[in-house]
Amino acid sequence: MECDGKPGKPKLAVYWGGSCGGCEIALVNLGERLLALDERLDFFFCPCLLDRKNKDVEELDDGAIALTLFNGAARTTENLEMARLLRRKSRLFVAYGACASSGGIPALANLDTPGSLSRTVFLESPTVENPSRHVPGSSSPYCTPALSLPKLTGSILPLSAIANVDYLIPGCPPEPETVWSAIAILTGADLPPKGSVVGAGTVPVCDECSRIRGEKRLRRFVRFHEAVPRDGECLLDQGIVCMGGATRSGCGALCPGANVPCSGCYGPPEGVADQGAAMVGALGSVLDPGELAALPEGEMAARTDALFEGIPDGAGTFYRYSLAGSLLRRRRP
After folding, report:
1. Radius of gyration of the chain (CA)
2. What are the distances in angstroms from CA 26 to CA 38, 42, 92?
């Protein structure tokens, strides 16, 4: 059943879950290559671009969509339903971007409960004026019939924990070259093994970074706004936490090239199970706390803690994009 699609042309679906919309912008940033994509695939379902309804997807035969790029975190019950529906209707189901691949920035909410987050956002934030102390609920009494709203999930999971994911495209958002390369692979004759990351590299970002690295013996870390990075010198050598050593290549090391530390949005390199743990381990090997052997235990701990004063938010630094897909996943009760 074509549902007003273009007969004979494979269907493409792009779904927007709990995200900022950057992955859609990355698609638009293909520029003129969008015309080549349109020649190859029929943009059948894309809520932010097309006025097509969920029922149009439901009416399709299973497997009728050739390729679905699902971006955004599964933050609501609606996201979960759409993930399962699009999985069923798609021959290839792809986690598109960091949020779908490993939770992304939305998954930092896993460090708290939905109830606590709602109180913070709608009641306790210094910039909120809410004298009636209303907090959004799951239905509205002001509509006839009553309007039901999607509920927040207890925690954010990677898309692969909700539905069978064939491939992953990393990035927050993926660079247009990554998107184009991934689509070329996914629409080609020879597909890589299921579960592969497509469109990106396999080695760390450091391997494609032009900055010169020296021997690291760090006595302290500095927050990025506290330093003026020296051109051409490894940012980590300067005490600025750069996630390049624990992040997958393929972006072209654009951030370090612009004097900005890598924040880790392409996820871990090949063979690394936990991006944050890999980075913490790497930092532990380059810290120089000085001579500790003769110090009392309390002073030893204080000196070690002082080394990390420049990293006030460990979770946001080491797991900014990967918490839901990490070994930690969320805060334990």
Report:
1. 23
2. 16, 18, 20
Reported confidence tier of residue 292, pLDDT bands at 50, 70, 90:
low
C-alpha 310/C-alpha 277 separation (Å) is 18
- Rounded to whole angstroms, what are the CA distances from 326 to 12, 13, 61, 158, 250? 30, 28, 35, 9, 21
Q: Residue written as tokens 């970002």?
A: 205
**Nearest alpha carbon to residue 72 among 17, 24, 20, 21:** 17
DSSP E strands, the chain: 11-16, 42-45, 65-71, 90-96, 139-140, 147-148, 167-169
Tokens 């207890």 correspond to what residue? 154
Q: Whole-model pTM?
A: 0.89
pLDDT in tens, 156-202: 999 999 999 999 999 999 999 999 999 999 999 899 999 999 999 99
Q: How far is CA 268 from CA 137, 254, 271, 278, in A?
A: 37, 17, 8, 9
Give CA 1 to chain center in angstroms: 34
Structure tokens at 19: 């995200």
What are the structure tokens assigned to 225, written together? 């706004």
For the chain, the structural domain boundaries read: 11-105+155-186, 122-148, 205-318
Fold of 11-105+155-186: Rossmann fold (3.40.50)
